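Blinded run. Sample ID left blank on purpose so nobody reads anything into the name before looking at the predicted structure. Input follows.
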Amino acid sequence: MRYDLIFASLLLGSLTTGRAYADASEGDAEHGKHIYKAICVACHNNKKGINGAVGPSLYGVYGAKAGQRPGFVYSDALKNSGYTWDTPTLLIWEAGARKMVPGTKMSYPGLTNPQDRIDIIAYLKTLHD
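Blinded prediction complete.
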């Protein structure tokens, strides 16, 4: 059973920080961009086909299969996870990557504010062709 997706469903139903979002399909992409610049840019960039110093590029990550993008060496745990970077999956990942995928190389402990997670997902959705 995919307990992580059950957890995501429960989380989505209980998000009320700041503004209430019924399904986390909305978010403040501009605020998400600020979070990205403050936190994520240390390891990731948002350029197409160019990885960051430590982590892969986040350009086009929304909707992509986890651990499968060319040009970056992923952990076996992430490559074999079977995840797709959609809203429920990213909400859990951003709360704590190593809790979601033990053995991942991503060491960031996670965003504690649920609204920040929704907003950064809104920003990630803008990074595509």
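Unblinding after everyone has recorded impressions. The chain has six helices and no strands.
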